[in-house]
Automatic annotation (TrEMBL):
Signal peptide: none annotated. GO terms for molecular function: ATP binding; sequence-specific DNA binding. Residues 3-118 form the Response regulatory domain. Pfam families: AAA_lid_14, HTH_8, Response_reg, Sigma54_activat. GO terms for biological process: phosphorelay signal transduction system; regulation of DNA-templated transcription. This is Sigma-54-dependent Fis family transcriptional regulator. Residues 146-375 form the Sigma-54 factor interaction domain. Keywords: ATP-binding, Coiled coil, DNA-binding, Nucleotide-binding, Phosphoprotein, Transcription, Transcription regulation. Gene3D superfamilies: 1.10.8.60, 3.40.50.2300, Homeodomain-like, P-loop containing nucleotide triphosphate hydrolases. It comes from Dyadobacter luticola. Residues 329-356 form a coiled coil. SUPFAM superfamilies: CheY-like, Homeodomain-like, P-loop containing nucleoside triphosphate hydrolases.
Length: 453
């Protein structure tokens, strides 16, 4: 039996859900607002899993969860969202931090996601620590992952093989769910450090107060709550690779410490007087534009350049062309095995929809949608009946006009405006920056970004 917190403002739905989960032996506390959830967490917690509706009267649950994580709350959680909000939920999703389920909620799917959340247990900032066994050539990872055959994928793995044997720091940039962690693991596996540890940290779920201690360790008594000495993840990764996911989330003071660790190869645990030598290769991932953040001062420029010895862009799924079919088959096989089903393939109509859809959540979203399809399909060929209904309607309406992509639209406007102002001031960049109300660094960055001559 699990102790669940359900935050849902649709009372009919929450009653149905809690009675359904009750019948499956779970205990459910229901709240209809984030304020209520906050109170329940303080007064009635801890819970095993948080189940959060996306839109609530007093805010959205992605922001709520982010706050909880930054406060150090690590309860497993998933978000229930309508298909139209998937994009937002997915974009904000951190690996392992939380999952999502689309409404209308299918009972079998709900139990599946809940089971997974319970198995995962508490979310930790340390995502994975693995020590590869020497002499095991075809390790499990190579069976679980595929590279794809498209030109863009071939290039991606060419870069991976090129940079892996060096000791260069690498920035892996790509949208959420594109496989950045997998790329980092591949670099580690193909490096001289393959027999050393691979430690993955999710900086997005590190609380601000504890980030430095998590990375560099602390001495007993260094701060309230430091009850004993703690080894930081830098030391844990000694001789291997440290993977910092969502590095853009690290606070400024931790960024300074990180830069020092990279430059001098030494760390000082909090409260310690002695320095500790470390031999760690750093790989950082981000789905933000770190260069832009460095230009605006949100990320330390010196650290950015120190990390950016090599940059790898992981392409979004919609740009991986023919790989889609390969990934589909791979995820179908995986879901069959996990769920003990026997779906052979997806119908032509499903594949057509998949090809038109733009997959904002990339491989992770594809994996989720296929799992649902396999779970709900009774036949060997999975049909559109197991797709979220709204996915089908949205595809029917979708003409993909250029003007529907808000970000692209904003960028086009921005580019036009910058060009216009630059012309007006005869390319005097200081004047242009002033008129545009941005600093010069940001202007330079944007000129480069938009290839303005
Ligand atoms: N090459 C691959 N072959 C098969 N599955 C993959 C591959 N790359 C990624 N995946 C799967 O896609 C999902 C997302 O991958 P991963 O966590 O590496 O992405 P990410 O870009 O690091 O995500 P985030 O931005 O949220 O941290 C995982 O379930 C992973 O197993």
């Amino acid at each position: 039996m699990a102790n669940l917190l359900l935050v849902e403002d649709d009372t009919t739905f929450s009653k149905l859900l809690s009675s359904f989960l009750g019948k499956h032996g779970h205990q459910v506390k229901v709240c209809s607002s984030l304020k209520g959830a906050r109170e329940a967490l303080t007064e009635e917690g801890p819970f095993d899993v948080l189940m959060l509706d996306y839109r609530l009267p007093d805010g959205n649950s992605v922001d709520f969860l982010k706050t909880l994580r930054s406060e150090g709350n690590r309860t497993a959680a998933f978000i229930m969202t309508s298909f139209h909000d998937v994009r937002t939920a997915v974009t904000a999703m951190q690996i392992g931090a939380f999952d999502y389920i689309t409404k209308p909620v299918n009972p079998e799917e709900l139990l599946m996601v809940l089971r997974e959340a319970l198995n995962k247990g508490e979310v930790t900032s340390v995502k994975a620590v693995s020590k590869a066994k020497p002499n095991v050539k075809a390790d499990k990872q190579s069976l679980e992952y595929i590279e794809g055959k498209s030109k863009i994928s071939k290039q991606l793995y060419e870069y991976v093989r090129l940079v892996a044997p060096t000791d260069m720091s690498v920035i892996i940039q790509g949208e959420s769910g594109t496989g950045k962690e997998h790329v980092a693991k591949s670099i580690h596996r193909l490096s001289k450090r393959a027999n050393g540890p691979f430690v993955a940290i999710d900086c997005g779920s590190l609380s601000k107060d504890l980030a430095a201690s998590e990375l560099f360790g602390h001495k007993k008594g260094a701060f309230t709550g430091a009850l004993m000495d703690k080894i930081g993840q830098f030391e844990a990764a000694d001789g291997g690779t440290l993977f910092l996911d969502e590095i853009g989330n690290l606070g400024y003071d931790v960024q300074i410490k990180l830069l020092r660790a990279l430059q001098e190869r030494i760390i000082v645990p909090i409260g310690a007087t002695q320095q500790v030598k470390v031999d760690v290769r750093l790989i950082a991932a981000t789905n933000e534009d770190l260069m832009a953040n460095a230009a605006t001062g949100d990320f330390r420029e010196d650290l950015y350049h120190r990390l950016n010895e090599f940059k790898i862009e992981v392409p979004p799924l919609r740009k991986r062309g023919e790989d889609l079919g390969i990934f589909v088959q791979h995820f179908v096989d995986k879901a069959n095995e996990e769920l003990e089903r026997n779906v052979r393939e997806l119908s032509k109509e499903v594949m057509e929809i998949f090809m038109k859809y733009d997959w904002p959540g990339n491989l992770r979203e594809l994996n989720n949608v296929i799992k649902r399809l396999v779970l709900l399909s009774k036949e060997e060929v999975a049909t559109t009946s197991a797709l979220p209904a709204e996915m089908i309607t949205s595809m029917e309406d979708q003409q993909k006009p250029a003007g529907s992509d808000l970000k692209a639209l904003q960028e086009t406007h921005e580019k036009e405006m910058i060009e216009k102002v630059l012309q007006e001031v005869r390319y005097n960049k200081s004047k242009a920056a002033k008129l545009l109300n941005i600093d010069r660094k940001t202007l330079y960055y944007k000129i480069e970004k938009y290839h303005i001559e």
